[in-house]
Amino acid sequence: MSEKKLRDKQLGADRLVARDVLRAVRERDAYANLLLPKLLRERGLQGRDAALATELTYGTARSTGVLDQIIAAAAGRPVDQIDGDLLDVLRLGAYQLLRTRIGAHAAVSTSVDLVRSEKGQGPAGFVNAVLRKISQRPEQYWIDDLAPPITEDLIGNLAFTYAHPRWIAEVFFQALGRSAGELQAALAADDQRPIVHLVARPGQITAEELALISGGEEGRYSPYCVYLPEGDPGKLDAVREGFAGVQDEGSQLVALALARAEPDGPDTGRWLDLCAGPGGKAALLGSLSELSGAHLDAVELAPHRAELITKVVEGLPVTVHVADGRDSGLEPGFDRILVDAPCSGLGSLRRRPEARWRRTDAEVPGLVVLQTELLTEALRLVRPGGVVVYSTCSPHPAETTEVIAAVLADTPGVSQIDARPATAGDVFDPETLGPGPHVQLWPHRQDTDAMFLAVLRKDAR
Ligand SMILES: C[S@@+](CC[C@H](N)C(=O)[O-])C[C@H]1O[C@@H](n2cnc3c(N)ncnc32)[C@H](O)[C@@H]1O
């Protein structure tokens, strides 16, 4: 065994990977869900070691803001006065102490070893002292001590308890009709790591076949979905060969709603995806359009994301355009248009562990302008009688119902139709999707990302 391998083993290769990912997230805004699988592969971690590294990395990244408040209280100084490399290890250690069943001794000693090997005895002593202090109390003690009292600030208390920034909890509260019980359920579900959802590409493999070969289970809502509770989807032949992909069931329902929504008059086979990168929905729509003899145009502003679409739609009747969806140069007259708008992503936080601590509400007004312009352009490009599906992976009312209301108010000759039948198809009861006319999915209700979708139809002449 090489000296480096031996060192990694002694230190715990799982924690070393977790620390390195957390450091990259902090130092260079890396995405944990992209970097972690790469490091696991490069360092040959598999099985239980890979599972532990994943749990520690994602769990720590999800809880960062709350762990920082606890670390600051235990260290007696704000975290911005703690060296970043030490802070990564403190977060990792505090997460293990407070939010896992790992024993206190293992959590503290592995953290101290990580610091000692890189930084020496002094910093290791500091990490030891802070983590020991944290370990003396259970998580509930720290919540009671540091969270706003539930009687004074219910939203702030729940946000702290379930490791969300307060402003995001406030947005969920509004989107859930100001129900405290549902907010608690939504935050709790959003604080869990979701299982992988696969999509079986129509015409290439069925969900039943994919479930059999992957050891997964067929989805509840999308006829193309398979739940994969464990295992690396990248190792499945069906995924490697492009018969299947990784896609949240809620995203599948959005693409399906576009294919199922009823235009007024016959479908002439011109479909458009106006914000298509990286191509998850375009791939599903491309397969569905092939089966129904249609053609999909896929527009994407970012060239590198357009390249990803080109790869994933290979062999399907799809043309990819690198263009601004607000001025694509495409001829009007589409039967169906999807506007899967750039958004704050607040609906898929559980799949992007660190995202909740990176986002700010200052981004939202600019996104709302873009969303409004893209939807307005889609309504110009759709033919009379044609349908437009507007969707976001965000439940933020400013990005969802308020965009729809503003565009409807400014665009004569367009009506909003009930999105529930198109979302449910003949697979499940549309009434389970709330009162309509839009659909808002939630992790705590459907166990999907919190996708929003609305269906608009241009009046036939
Ligand atoms: C929510 S993502 C779409 C996800 C995609 N539909 C899928 O399922 O894989 C929004 C996409 O819109 C792109 N985008 C941003 N501004 C755009 C614009 N003005 N015109 C077209 N695409 C744009 C972003 O680069 C991003 O790839």
Automatic annotation (TrEMBL):
InterPro entries: MeTrfase_RsmB-F_NOP2_cat, MeTrfase_RsmB-F_NOP2_dom, NusB-like_sf, NusB_RsmB_TIM44, RCMT, RsmB/NOL1/NOP2-like_CS, SAM-dependent_MTases_sf. Keywords: Methyltransferase, RNA-binding, S-adenosyl-L-methionine, Transferase. The active site is at C393. S-adenosyl-L-methionine binds at C275, A276, G277, P278, G279, G280, K281, E300, D324, D340. Residues 172-459 form the SAM-dependent MTase RsmB/NOP-type domain. Belongs to the class I-like SAM-binding methyltransferase superfamily. RsmB/NOP family. This is Putative rRNA methyltransferase. It comes from Gordonia hirsuta DSM 44140 = NBRC 16056.
